[in-house]
Amino acid sequence: GRTVSYTDKGAQNGRNFTSTMSDISYDSSGRMVSYTNSGTGAKGKFYKNSYSLSYDAKGRIKTQSITSYNKQGAKIASSDKYSISYYSNGLVKSYKETGWSQKAGKYNSSRYGITYDGLGRQSGFRESGWTEANGKYTTHRYSVSYKGVNISSYTEARWNEGRGASVTTMSNMVYKNGM
Predict the structure, then answer these.
(1) Cβ proximity of 81 and 63 under 8 Å
(2) Dihedral angle at the C-alpha atoms of 168, 160, 129, 104, nearest 10 degrees?
(3) What pLDDT is recorded for position 14?
(4) Which end of the chain is more exposed for a tag (fewer CB within 10 A), N or C?
(5) This prediction's pTM
């Protein structure tokens, strides 16, 4: 049979966490098409996200929908990725996304020109879009470097309607609690 739910429990940096995958369903080809992931992170914060996936003829993700809920079960955010295109090696080349969150309101974006390093880790991208909270924006993230599996630095050029342009370099990034 196929797995329909499971729970992971553990500790990171002395803090307990719990993560449960439930309501897992599959299509006729054995690919996961929906599931719910919920639990309490290492910082004690509750999370619950429901996922829905569809696939193209080559078995690559065609659409992905995520809905997030608070502890009381109220919807606090949702997003839909679609028009996902791929390079010949199977890595994502571009996609579009629409969504909503309690904090930022509605948004839509188009991420394109996604580049990767020799290990298949994202090394850059361009994005343009609109948010209800901040209007139109464009972003170009580049010079992404890694320490192991975590991003250690990157440079980002960003323009926001009403805020103008900025260039930010993030470096010496430190990850705590398994992030």
Answers:
(1) yes
(2) 90
(3) 77
(4) N
(5) 0.85
